[in-house]
Amino acid sequence: MYKSNKRLSGFNSPVLTGPKKSKISAETSSSASLSPVQATTSEEINNNNNDDDDGGEELTELKKELNDLKKELNQKEEMLRKLKLVKMYRDKKDFKNLPDLTEKWKNCCQKALQDLHMLLPDPRPSMLQLLQNLQIEPLLLGYNVEEDSFDT
């Protein structure tokens, strides 16, 4: 009578092998890892939901705090960048030779204006007219209007 057991390969008779718990009943009996579908009482479902809500609110607060800290970090990095730039300019700028450099650029500008004036076609405008057309202050370049020449 029990010889037919060989034909049903996936089936084990509880009479021949003894009592065994099925895998399904063993998994559902543990209450530690209950999902809302496996929970048997509404109290267990409510407890699981309350834990998720608190975690969600806490997660939202942590994300907000993280964003605030990132903004503050960006502001501090920008301030540090500006301070380093100011320090570099202060170290780099040497105002001791500024009068010499000013005189050098003034002479170069005077020479460039004289060359430009010579390249203009006849009838050439006066140097004063050229300076006024270029909207350059004659005194800025040391141009003497009365003598019609640059002071050197």
UniProtKB/TrEMBL annotation:
Comp. bias regions, Polar residues: 36-45
Signal peptide range in chain numbering: none
UniProt biased composition (Low complexity): 25-35
Keywords: Coiled coil, DNA damage, DNA repair, Nucleus, Transcription, Transcription regulation
Record carries keyword Coiled coil: yes
GO cellular component: Swi5-Sfr1 complex
Record-given protein name: Swi5-dependent recombination DNA repair protein 1 homolog
